[in-house]
Amino acid sequence: MVFLIKVQLREDYSNLIFYLSPLVAVALTLFFGSFIFLILDLSPIESFKIFFISPISNSYGISELFVKATPLAIIALGLSYCFKNNIYNIGAEGQLTMGAIFGGGIGLLFNDSTSVFLLPSMILFGALGGAFWATIPAILKTKFNTNEILTSLMLTYVALFILDYFVVGPWKDPAGYGLPKSMPFPDAGRLPVLIDGLRVHIGVYFALIISLITYIIYNRTLFGFKLKVTGLSSKASQYAGFKYKNLIFYTFIISGACAGLAGLFEVSGPIGLLYRDISPNYGFTAIIVAFLGRLNPFGIILSSLLIALTYLGAEDAQLFLKIPSAVGFVFQGLVLFFLLGTDFLNKYKVFIK
Amino acid sequence: MQSIVEFKNIFKSYPGVIANDDVSFNIKEQSIHAILGENGAGKSTLVKILYGHVKPDSGEILIDSDLAIINSPSTAKNLGINMVFQHFSLFESLTVAENLILGMNENISLTKLKDNSKTICDKYGFNLNLNSPISSLSVGQRQSVEIVRSLLNNPKILIMDEPTSVLTPDEISKLFKIIKKLVKDGLTVIFISHKLEEIINLSDYVTIMRNGKVVSTISTQNEDPETLGYKMLGYKVSKAKQISNINFSKDIFNIKNLSTQSKDPFTINLNKIDLNLKKGQIFGIAGVAGNGQKELMEILLNENDYEFSGDIIFKDLNINNLSTFQRKSLSISYVTEERLGHSAVPEMSLSENIFLSMNHKSEFKKGDFINFEKINSYASDVIKNFNVDTPSYNVKAGKLSGGNLQKFIIGREIMSNPELLILSQPTWGIDAGSEAFIKKTIVELSQKGVSIIIISHDLDELLEVCHQISVLYEGSLSNPLNVKDINISKLGKYMGGLFD
After folding, report:
1. Beta-carbon count within 10 A of A7 CB
2. How far apart are CA B363 and CA B314, in angstroms?
3. Which of A181, A182, A227, A312 has the most beta carbons within 10 angstroms of its beta carbon?
């Protein structure tokens, strides 16, 4: 007897379930995540409390939540342009790094500046750096039909090595005891915090503004319409006379600029200088954030908060439960897995013959 | 004669539609039994149930008076039931013999199979070279391969799903001779069609289906196309009347010496195509599918910078290098063969689908912003003026029936006041009511001075609405024939490639 699994497209594909499935995915993640704690001989309820509640039970924790959510949201909003257009830019981590190098480089170059223009020009160069790095896979894709998934991913490692070169080479802090890090940025190059004594910074406003602009672009403009049509049917997009190659460039540049912006905010905000590990994989995690938020600009804000919590929870879990902080990544992976699963089951019927 | 197949109370439903609703009728042994109905009447579902391809929700099938459980096409084959599908499943790069052996259930040597096939070909007059690759065959010959493949299994019953839709008039009459001979030798043929005259010419009995139900099963002896058509639809359809004695003067659109030299073996190269279209003229491009229609349409639309030599001239302007967008801006409108996913996006609302094709028009934009109010009112007008059956313009295009969607798409293009309208298969696969409406609309449009090119496999449709018809055969376009004094046998020869 052979068991055959048959997959059939549903004709009554539900839009409601499409928007509810992130919640289902989170519920399933919690359910299966509790087994991880059980295997580790920990009480799931206590562990979840430490993982998801205690990190945000005080103002410091909430501030940290926003610190983590801000880059995730900004990058994911940018990525949503690519993903809507069926372009898979998974090199946001590299674009983030380039943004940090370009923008941070300005901060180091004008190290003694007190000008009010220093920070804006760092922000500008941060976005330009990310956009520049994203243009490379866009050119390769449009000129040579290269797979953008591979090129954007590989360029991430190139960017990381370039950062490495600068912080152990020309930009190494002479007074830094030989550590691979740059001098701190001047005060004029630091991102203002929202509340004294906490790390939450004005990047939050940027995330909200970008989300609002993105919402308007998606729902009110010709450009948003082009992305929507192209994502749904490339042939219809040609029929409409839209130039796919141009859309590839625009979406790569937007997502690269957002990632670069997030990178600059990290180094000029919480970190304050350049060194090797500026990002705990924000660029990759933002892919999960974008899909969990259903590529919807407001959904992305919510999902960025949730995923940010897994970062904080993992830190607390390491501290109080003595388990590796990689558990945070396990949870992120589970969410993505269940989200893809629920999406698949919403779109297709599966039966065993 | 006794019944070889008995359908008893067959039910089959899909989400939102009942494909077969209490279908019961018998098919007599050694007869040609037609199943007639519009697209979506449930004909295909029923024969797929008989062939074991689809499982009914309830109901029984008796073969030779015995209850038959047909779970799969291979059980069907064991019961002596074979089917020739509308869409062929042949490997282009393999030879005829190789394709034939792939369809065999039993083990058989290639030599033996060639012998058997040769016998069948000689006996029934199939003109096939067993060693040619499929890619070198015409559509008619490909169908022969499919039929021979079925006959090799020694079937008792042969199902043919719309077998004439891809054939030239000559090929059709050849096919009918073969079918009659096969039936004389003991085969029972189930023949699916929506062409009334064919059914009367060929079949002994006809089962008429409408909305999944059997209307009646009758002998075709005392029927004519009109009475049969009335039974199929439940209402009468009037034909569009083209006024053919207008003197056309002004050139609107010219194709001069258009050729392509693609190296892709799966595309047809166009060969020195010349076409001259006057203001207010409807020009039909006839021909069997796969003779270059797709390539010609691609060049006319210019979605992919398809390479060609020659000139395309619209109102004295050479538009060779203009993009789709630019051509649309010059008031050329297009309706492509594929409705869903090409000229409309199924997941988008009707309003959004208006903007899909009209995004070059400044009245629908305020700068980079979309003017949804204008679009919605345009959509309402299309729905009203073109009898589109839908509750609102917010309905997703994919929810509309084929006929309604096509009325919407054609309406959308017409409302933008094009000077040239290019339609590919405008009435393919839609209900007779919408078809009649669209034909009438097209004729009226031409009388208002709009020039129209129709690319279609449906000769009846072209003869009904066009002023002139040319035939596309293997990438060459015949000289135009005036429909007013057309000679059908000449047209038939043209479709077989016999023109200079």
Report:
1. 11
2. 24
3. A227
Q: Report yes or no for ipTM above 0.90.
A: no
Chosen CATH of B251-495 out of 3.50.50.60, 3.30.70.80, 3.80.30.20, 3.40.50.300 = 3.40.50.300
Mean pLDDT over the full length of chain B: 89
For residue B313, what is the DSSP state? E
Residue B292's Cβ-count burial label (10 Å; 0-12, 13-18, 19+) is buried
- B346, B348, B360 member nearest A241 (Cβ): B360
Please return the burial class of B30, using the count of CB atoms within 10 Å of its CB with bins 0-12, 13-18 and 19+.
middle
B345 and A225: CB-CB below 8 Å?
no
Å from A244 to nearest chain B CA?
11
CA angle A265, A266, A270 (to 5 degrees): 110
Dist. CA B96–CA B137, nearest whole Å: 9
pLDDT score recorded for residue B40 = 75
Task: Give the tens place of pLDDT for each residue, A257-282.
Answer: 999 999 999 999 999 999 988 999 99
Measured on CA atoms in the order A6, B77, B32, B165, is the torsion positive or negative? positive
Type of residue at B393: Y
Amino acid occupying residue B319: I
Using CA atoms, how far residue A111 sits from A107, A164, A263, in Å, is: 6, 20, 19
| pLDDT score of B305 more than 50 | yes
Query: Distance between CA atoms of B155 and B160, rounded to whole angstroms?
Result: 13
pTM equals 0.82
Q: Could you tell me the strand order of the sheet in which B309-314 lies?
A: B273-278, B251-259, B309-314, B317-318
- What is the nearest CA distance from A300 to chain B, expressed in angstroms? 22
User: Would you kindly state where each structural domain of chain B is located, as residue ranges?
Assistant: 3-233, 251-495
Evaluate whether the domain defined by B3-233 bears CATH number 3.40.50.300. yes
Q: Minimal CA–CA distance to A326: which of A288, A280, A289?
A: A280
Q: Contact B33/B55 with Cβ under 8 angstroms?
A: no
pLDDT class of A346 with cuts at 50, 70, 90: confident
Contact A220 B370 (CB under 8 A): yes
The rounded distance, in Å, linking the Cα atoms of B432 and B230 is: 11
d(CA A255, CA A249): 10
B344 contacts chain A (CB < 8 A): yes
**Residue B186: C-alpha distances to residues B1, B149, B206, B438, B472 (Å):** 12, 18, 19, 43, 39
From CA A268, how far away is CA B269, in angstroms rounded? Answer: 61
* Dihedral angle over CA of B325, B330, B335, B339, nearest 10: 30
Q: How far apart are CA B404 and CA B395, in angstroms?
A: 12
> In chain B, pLDDT over 70 holds for what percent of residues?
97
DSSP codes, B64-103: TTEE----SHHHHHHTTEEEE-SS----TTSBHHHHHHHT
Q: Please state, rounded to an integer, the average pLDDT across all residues of chain A.
A: 92
- Report d(CA A105, CA A166) in Å as an integer: 10
Question: What is d(CA B271, CA B191) in angstroms, rounded to the nearest whole number?
Answer: 36
Chain A residue with CA closest to B354: the answer is A240
Judge whether B3-233 and B251-495 match in fold: yes
